[in-house]
Amino acid sequence: MSSTIIDPSARLGANTTCGEFCVIGKNVIIGSKCVIGHRVVVHDDTVIGDNVRIDDGSVIGKQPMKAAISATTKEQQLQPCTIGDGSMVGTGAVIYRGAEVGEKVLVADLATIRENVAIGKATIVGRGTAIENHCRIGSFVKLETNVYVTAYSRIDDRAFVAPCVATSNDNYVGRTEERFKHFKGVTVEKGGRIGVNATILPGKIIHEDALVAAGALVTRDVAARKLAAGSPARTIKDVPPEQLLENQGWKD
Questions:
Q1: Pick the CATH number of 1-63+78-140 from 1.10.1660.10, 2.160.10.10, 2.60.120.10, 3.40.50.880
Q2: How high is the pLDDT of residue 1?
Q3: Is residue 145's pLDDT more than 60?
Q4: Exposed/middle/buried for residue 7 (C-beta within 10 Å: 0-12, 13-18, 19+)
Q5: Mean pLDDT, to the nearest integer, of 170-176?
Q6: Residue 58 has pLDDT above 80, yes or no
Q7: What's this model's pTM, rounded to 2 decimal places?
Q8: What is the structure's pLDDT at 208?
């Protein structure tokens, strides 16, 4: 008797393999030439493309949990989780129902992607990174190890976020009813970059091709093509021309 449980309604493509002790739920669709590791759980209705690798112990399509005092998690009907062709999901990662992961995305070990999140093609979600609900992440984005992307944030194409960057969406720090009117995540526009261990406060915008230095505390928007540093961060100079996106020769 097999140690892996695959619901009769699930469909697996040609040359797809599943490891030991996997659970594949109702109406799941998994494409061809996928490699599903040991003890992977794929929840009901999830759609996984071709040539996808999902490593041991990952959970795909998880339903969100709502705490009694949660300010951002709501009871709702969520679309199935989808993972695009050629993507890779590392060991122990959790991707929720209602998440849309594009083609050739790397979700590293122990990362978490919440519901109502969309991620564009060829983006990297680093080890231990958490993307909260209601976020939009572009294509060719790099979110390095242990980045925290707060709910209601947007990170555009070709942005770079270094390890241990923290973002926030609540200027009231969990107090007063007024806070519910003002939840707002951060925005990193196309090509924006944030250095290691920086902190970005609620609603702040890192404009196109701007650079936030390591350890900075961003309390105001950072203008396009400017470098901001310090605590609180201040604009100190232009981003060098050779670092601008237009001079990299990249093609999407």
A1: 2.160.10.10
A2: 46
A3: yes
A4: middle
A5: 87
A6: yes
A7: 0.94
A8: 98
20-to-36, 39, 48, 145 alpha-carbon distances in Å: 9, 6, 19, 29
Choosing among 3.30.420.40, 1.10.10.410, 2.160.10.10, 1.10.150.20, the CATH entry for 153-171+189-240 is 2.160.10.10
Lookup result for tokens 């707060």: 150
Q: Which residues pair with residue 62 across a beta bridge? A: 96
Residue the block writes with tokens 């030991």: 20
Extended strands (E) in 132-196: 135-137, 142-143, 148-149, 154-155, 160-161, 166-167, 187-188, 193-194
Tell me the pLDDT band of 204, cut-offs 50, 70 and 90.
Answer: very high
* Beta-carbon contacts of residue 137 (< 8 Å; ≥ 6 apart): 117, 118, 119, 120, 123, 125, 131, 143, 149, 154, 155
What is the per-residue pLDDT across 72-106, written as a single tens digit (0 to 9) for each? 666 779 999 999 999 999 999 999 999 999 999 99
Please tell me the distance from the alpha carbon of residue 172 to that of residue 81, in angstroms, as a whole number: 32
- Judge residue 96's burial from the number of C-beta atoms within 10 Å of its C-beta, 0-12 exposed, 13-18 middle, 19 or more buried: buried
Q: 192 is written with which tokens?
A: 């924006």
User: Which pLDDT value is given to residue 70?
Assistant: 64
Please check the confidence at residue 139 and state whether its pLDDT lies above 70. yes
Number of H helices and E strands in the chain, helices first, is 0, 33
Query: Look-up: residue for tokens 């990662």?
Result: 93
130: tokens are 């958490």
Compute, in degrees rounded to 10, the torsion defined by CA atoms 122, 127, 130, 134. 10
Compute the CA torsion angle 125, 126, 131, 137 (nearest 10 deg): -30
